[in-house]
Design brief:
The protein is an alpha/beta fold and about 210 residues long. The protein is built from six helices and seven strands. Strand 4, helix 3 and strand 5 form a beta-alpha-beta unit.
Amino acid sequence: MKILNLYAGIGGNRKAWGDEHEVTAIEFDEETAKVYRDYFPNDTVIVTDAHKYLLEHYKEYDFIWGSPPCPTHSILNTTKNGRGDVKMEYPDMTLYQEIIFLDNWFKGKWVIENVVPYYTPLIAAKKVDRHLWWSNFNITSKDIKRPFKMDTATVEQYEDFLGYDLSKYKLSNKIKNLRNCVIPETGLHILNCALDKIAHDGIKQGELF
């Protein structure tokens, strides 16, 4: 299966997928992409704008995963959490552009992941493992255990939990790179849900949540 992994980061979502699929990863930051290349040498890694790449290449893949930027949607980036010093920004509509685009034009299976926002989502989604998921296949619930509190965990704790060693990389914010990772167990669960749907092609395609 040909998989497009958009906004790939260091590849947390992809970590448990194995090497049976043909994966193309899109990441905008070169140093972040270097980490991904080292951990997944069999993948094709392209340093470019994921939003633009999706529009130009979506027909080439069987399964598309997207994790567009989340800060402008998160409650942590608004004064609703009591942080009056936070600079207010308009929500980045890239998220909804990609959901609408894939739901109407992509013939394969797709999923978009993002944080639970400070507002009511404009398009209904499924909540699994602290995040929201938009997809055209059914995603079942799954409880993911973490050995620490995310907001107080150290780089070393994240590295041990996720299976990374970032000591040799010149990342500007290692804790952010690690926090941005989808937990590998969750990434595998989502892929398996998509594969199960693909395996039952005779069944009517799932609707957008």
